User: Which sequence fits this backbone?
């Protein structure tokens, strides 16, 4: 999700959903019985063994297999109970429980009066939070921050997303309906008003304010991922497309004091970015320009273009329109940097292939793509030297670069 120009209307591009053929193996012809490889046959045997109730009873009691069985049972239960856990977390956030414990542990009575909740409900919430490592029991029956609760205090962007997820959960009440095509009709589509809106340039400041604030809150942690993977110091001018309120440019500019910066986003969003540049003293080397990359020419003169959480919001047709426009705007040996969660990244598969896949489905626009698919699209747009760069935490964002040649 990013504050960007436009999204395509659901249904305009037949390949927008289900068009990622490069990411999928070819389907067997109708009526044929595919031959199973040795690997598939071995996995089938494993599946039959694991599904057998007798084996499950044996694995749960035999000393050598019991730890494995317990771990898998715990993972399976976590999948079943995940929504309950998330609601406990939401309660803690809305009650500002972690903020209450910033200065040290407190007793049940103290917390009950501050939240405020009845004493028995306070204990219920506190013990649940302890079990999730959000809180920790301290001496004299008091409660303090747990390892995860302390980490949340340093990540206001995560706190904002926890609040925001109430909309996502509402839209996911009927996941099968979403999968069957009832997309873009829920709260998320309304929250991101430029989704499927070919006249998004006309959106008012009031319409863009909620999602711009959300993206601004989460931008610092994404910026850290980008800066851990790539240095902008060798560049003279950055064009950040879909740059929102300018948070990313502000972070980059702080690390590259001679870099000139241009932000391109919807007019109402660009106005907010201009105000931010003035407030942080960047007006002398940062400018915000309003427009849509689908209908307006991109600003020229930059030797590097950044797309931070932009590509995965769009269908293939609009992505190719954007990539070709960037290729035309960049000089010879210019650089394009893309930062977003990528499908299939080792160790971050649930983020790209589950969370963002269904989030974007509920929005009614975009999809996560694999590096292979992005590389193919970039090559088609005329880019070379396409590389996935090591990032500190790819579950938050992967970083890839490409050159114009």
Assistant:
């Amino acid at each position: 999700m990013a504050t960007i120009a436009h999204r395509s209307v659901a249904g305009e591009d037949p390949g927008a959903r289900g068009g990622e053929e490069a990411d999928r193996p070819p389907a067997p012809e109708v009526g044929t019985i595919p031959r199973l490889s040795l690997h598939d046959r071995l996995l089938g045997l494993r599946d039959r063994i694991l599904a057998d109730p007798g084996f499950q009873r044996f694995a749960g009691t035999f000393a050598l297999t019991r730890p494995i069985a317990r771990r898998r049972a715990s993972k399976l239960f976590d999948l079943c109970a995940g929504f309950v856990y998330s609601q406990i977390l939401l309660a803690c956030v809305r009650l500002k429980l972690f903020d209450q414990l910033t200065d040290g542990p407190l007793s049940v009575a103290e917390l009950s009066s501050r939240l405020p909740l009845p004493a028995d409900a306070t204990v219920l919430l506190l013990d649940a939070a302890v079990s999730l490592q959000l809180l920790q029991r301290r001496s004299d029956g008091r409660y303090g921050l747990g390892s995860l609760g302390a980490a949340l205090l340093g990540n206001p962007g995560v706190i904002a997303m926890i609040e925001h997820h109430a909309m996502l959960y509402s839209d996911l009440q009927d996941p099968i309906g979403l999968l069957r095509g009832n997309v873009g009709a829920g709260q998320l589509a309304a929250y991101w008003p430029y989704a499927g809106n070919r006249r998004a340039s006309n959106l008012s400041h009031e319409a863009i304010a909620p999602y711009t604030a959300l993206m601004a809150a989460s931008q610092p942690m994404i910026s850290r991922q980008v800066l851990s993977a790539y240095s902008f110091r060798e560049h003279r001018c950055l064009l950040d497309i879909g740059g929102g309120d300018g948070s990313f440019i502000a972070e980059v500019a702080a690390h590259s004091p001679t870099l000139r910066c241009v932000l391109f986003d919807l007019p109402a969003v660009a106005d907010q970015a201009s105000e931010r540049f003035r407030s942080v003293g960047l007006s002398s080397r940062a400018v915000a320009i309003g427009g849509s990359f689908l209908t307006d020419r991109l600003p020229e003169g930059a030797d590097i273009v950044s797309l931070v959480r932009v590509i995965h919001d769009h269908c293939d047709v609009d992505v190719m329109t954007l990539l070709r426009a960037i290729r035309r705007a960049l000089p010879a040996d210019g650089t394009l940097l893309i930062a977003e969660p990528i499908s299939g990244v080792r160790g971050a598969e649930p983020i790209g292939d589950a969370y963002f896949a269904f989030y974007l489905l509920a929005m009614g626009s975009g999809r996560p793509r694999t590096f292979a698919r992005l590389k193919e699209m970039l090559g088609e747009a005329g880019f070379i030297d396409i590389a996935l760069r090591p990032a500190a935490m790819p579950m938050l964002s992967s970083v890839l670069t490409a050159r114009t040649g």
The chain has 16 helices and nine strands. Confidence is low (pLDDT under 50) at residues 1-22. Residues 62-154 form a domain with the Arc Repressor Mutant, subunit A fold (CATH 1.10.10.10).
